[in-house]
Amino acid sequence: MLDLKGRKRAAPVLEPIAAGLAKIGVVPVVVTIGGLVVTIGGAVLIAYGYLFAGGLIAGAGVTLDALDGPLARKLGTDSDRGAFSDTMSDRLGEIAIWTGVMVFVADEPLLFGLSVAALVLSLLVPYVRAAAEVVGVEGRGGWMGRAERMILILFGLMAVGLMARGSGLEILEAILWVFVVLTGLTLAQRVRKTWQQLDA
Q1: Is residue 23 exposed (0-12), middle (13-18) or buried (19+ Cβ within 10 Å)?
Q2: For residue 179, which of 100, 117, 102 has the smallest C-alpha distance?
Q3: CA pair distance 148, 133, nearest whole angstrom
Q4: CATH superfamily of domain region 2-197
Q5: Average pLDDT, whole number, for the chain?
Q6: pLDDT digits over 61-111, tens only?
Q7: Labelling 153: which of 52, 56, 90, 133 has CA 20 to 30 A away?
């Protein structure tokens, strides 16, 4: 839901930054790779238990990655290859974040299982959209697009990072349950929407 609305609202902020990057010769692929590297750095911190710092840095990486599109349009270099690399970077970033979470909760079977489920659902939601677009129908929609997923898990991790470990893990469990349920419902929404558009 925020993916499209958020881009419009963020445009006044992102466009001037993209213009500045264009002036100094930065190309979109550098921004894409840089955003992924920063996100992975945050994920490593999450794995080691530095949840606030890790969530903050991973969030910076996700935000940096949002600049590649405006920069490509500013330079007139937007292309299918750029869109493909951006999509791959998004997925790799999500995998990195959830891998960090799974390492952090490795000694907590329930939290580990919820994290695995969250990762699987996070990958299936954009897969349904891609599969729908292959056959020429609309596959967007649902409550938990990438923006919502990143906001929930990263802000959640940052909040947990400010708490004592015992109470923090209880809050993290609640966040993971909310994430899994809402992302699962989003997956169902997209499957249903796609199915209704297909010919019998």
Answers
A1: exposed
A2: 117
A3: 21
A4: CDP-alcohol phosphotransferase transmembrane (TM) domain (1.20.120.1760)
A5: 90
A6: 998 888 888 888 888 888 888 889 999 999 999 999 999 999 999 999 999
A7: 133
Q: Which of 141, 161, 159, 142 is nearest to 151 (CA)?
A: 159
> Catalytic: which of 65, 68, 86, 90?
90
Q: Using CA atoms of 38, 180, 183, 7 in order, give the dihedral in degrees to the nearest 10.
A: -30
Q: Which residue has the tokens 């056959």?
A: 135
Tell me if residue 68 is catalytic.
no
> What does the alpha-carbon distance between residue 121 and residue 146 come to, in Å, rounded to a whole number?
11
Q: How many CB atoms lie within 10 A of CB 159?
A: 16
Determine the straight-line distance between the first and last CA of the chain, rounded to whole angstroms.
28
